[in-house]
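User:
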Amino acid sequence: MNNQTIVQRDLSVLWHPCSQMKDYDPRSTDPDALTLIPIKSGQGVWLEDFDGNRYLDAISSWWVNLFGHANPIINQALKAQLETLEHVILGGFTHQAAVELAEKLVEITPDGLNKCFYADNGSSAIEVALKMSFHYWRNLGQTQKTKFITLENSYHGETLGALAVGNVALYKETYAPLLMDVISVPSPDCFFRDADESWEAYSIRRFADMEQTLARHAESVCAVIVEPLVQCAGNMRMYNPVYLQMLRAACDKYQVHLIADEIAVGFGRSGTLFACEQAAISPDFMCLSKGLTGGYLPLSAVMTTDSVYQAFYDDYQNLTAFLHSHSYTGNALGCRAALATIEIFQTQHVLERNRQLALAMAKATERFKEHPHVAEVRQTGMIVAIELVKNKQTREAFPWQQRRGLKVYRYALSRGVLLRPLGNVIYFMPPYVITEQEIQLMADVAWQGIQLAVQD
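Assistant: Predicted structure:
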């Protein structure tokens, strides 16, 4: 069996996510047509297709794979769990892996997050946090609190509640008639700072918009939801931790919850285990998924406080109980994979090694800063983004129809590197087991791809 055989099969039955399937039609004569790549196996940072071609997974397979494909520690933990329990309903029952993981998450997340509620993917975690915040205020008799504040350019998932509190038009516009109204505040995205302005100064300046919005709407607002430090699907735009410090203080002042969406930036991506640590804050809700299981299985968790938990602690008939559930909530295999992932963090000095890898990524991408079609190279921990523009001085963007990022993607695949640009933003978010030599390969291929893509 080879790649072409599998591709022909898939096209007849399988509808792929975040894809225009016409792009992959093998009958297409479009010069930008794409080919689906069936993957046979993975090992470390490498994926291999059925023809023996290898691809360096520079995006951790949608930001989930932390410690490489087929990681022996996680593999062994899952094999052992398979021999005892694969799944059990978490309504009225519990199991060892779920309890152990909840205890471990309480231990490693910021102070005060003492309760763990499971769901089964990132969007579901956001839905849980939104509903839990609203329901908390309802249980306290503050039924006027029905709104949420979000940042422009934010992304929190694609179920309807999560989509509503996001702000990336590409995902949201089509479904706007189905979505609840939210209050959007300008982002502290430091791409727009003045030429001589620091990230910190710009983030402080931008917080004035949030302060004014909270002052005006606090009585009707349940929570503010943010992606700490990096707006990942929003072109990997970044901001300074001081914004989170000011936001935490303002949420306390105006009696509004703070929801930290650490789904993409948690578990070491930002340079610390959780991005909130860099601001030394604890949110009221922290949403976790993606890297939680090391990229193995869908699982998410919402961490929250004792005070939120107590607001739901009542006689069942009073309708204060939180009745949100998923069939696979707290799945035993997912919990065991998550425990193995956290064990790797705690036994292998991962964050210390990541700091060295982050320095290697910075060094490998230093030359991109002088490229005539690169507006900015930005980095937060193990995330590097390179923003392509038509005009470096004015930062005029390439027209989206030109699909310059797609050209980089196609070239990189031909050189054995999996990049998946966000529009005209090329980014690296590799597994933590990558070597410095592989980082250099990743950067060299991206450089060559950009050279090709920006040609008129």
